[in-house]
Amino acid sequence: MAWFQGKLLVGTNRAIACVQAEAEHLKNSSDPYPPSDPNVSCTPDPTDLPLQAEIWSWDPTTNAWTRVYQSPNDVPIPNTLLKKTARDIGFRNMFIFTEQSGQQALYVSGCAATQIYPGVPGARVLRSTDGVNFQPLSQTPGTVFGDLNSFCFRTAASYNGKFYLISLNPGAVLEATNPELGDNAFQVVSKKGNVPNELMVFNNYLYISFDDPTQGFTIAKTQATGTIPYKMTSIITNGGYKTPNPNKTVLTLQTFNGSLYCGGDGLTLGGGFSAQGAELFRINADDTWDVIVGASRTLPDGTIKNPLSGLGVGFGWNYNNHMWRQEVFDNRLYVGTYDESTQLRLYNPNLGPQEGFDLYYTSDGVNFTMVDKNGFEDIYNNGVRGLLSTPYGLFLGTANEWYGTQIWRAMPPGFVLPAH
Known about the structure:
single chain; 420 residues; mainly beta; four-stranded antiparallel beta sheet; 31 strands
């Protein structure tokens, strides 16, 4: 989501549960497609899936929603007879960047269907200056941006006047002074083989998280100068040294009260309840770090770190496998989770009291208050996929792969709306 040109812009994906099921089926034929979940509706043939991603706009002056973009369905699916799929099957991130001309533009990170239709073109990035008209950045074959063939683009940031963007599969941090030009305006500035996931400017550095499925994530910082790949200074390594099962990924970064909060991914496939659970970390201005929500651990130098909030992994519920989104609103830090319980309901009916995402907030960065633990009383809202502070309140977009995303708005008592 983004607040741009006085409106709320929301990017969506399509048939995500079906896409995930087909991707797993291609890896392992024993994983079924269509999925066995009776609440998921998929086309019998995965090449018939409707996958056109969309962008919607909400106008606060009229309270009306308008679809401003739908991905074209014009990509031939290899090894089929005349079947086509969408150029973009989801929009994962929106970022407002002030270009060298002074023009503010909205950059939208897209995802492609390469996971389920090998051979189709990779992901795109769309650009808009008015929130109504969207055009893809140029990706000419033979150029840096044209040859990436990324499955997905992710988070973006602005640092020292330059635009930074994360590519997923292949994993890369991209840099551009004039991103609107696409093609060779971009260069890869991260080390080959490192897999970045999130980035954010904090304390005059660019902080970047890198994945490691076995040792645990790393968070590093760079001044983005000198020779490429840029020098990175590690701040947290080995997923913060939780043993066993360290968080392998950082999914969200957010600044609050002079610190950088880092939300982890604790999903452990094939592990039991005790192996799961996301953690929340805090990096301070001097680059010391704390566990805010998570397990106690002993570092290699003997230092013991306990969770300052007193809450264990997943805010005390191990199936909270992602600290998925964070946002600062009304002088509070809000943290929303992804709760795996809804997926697991078919195997364990006793999970009902916890099904649906959790939402917490903190005013001091340590002590948390629960807002809700049941997806706003809809168990199929299993994740907080978007959080955005705006002049019209705090907007929350749900992940709901069964019945479709929902958009919620919160306004605290005494909140004053702008005059039209």
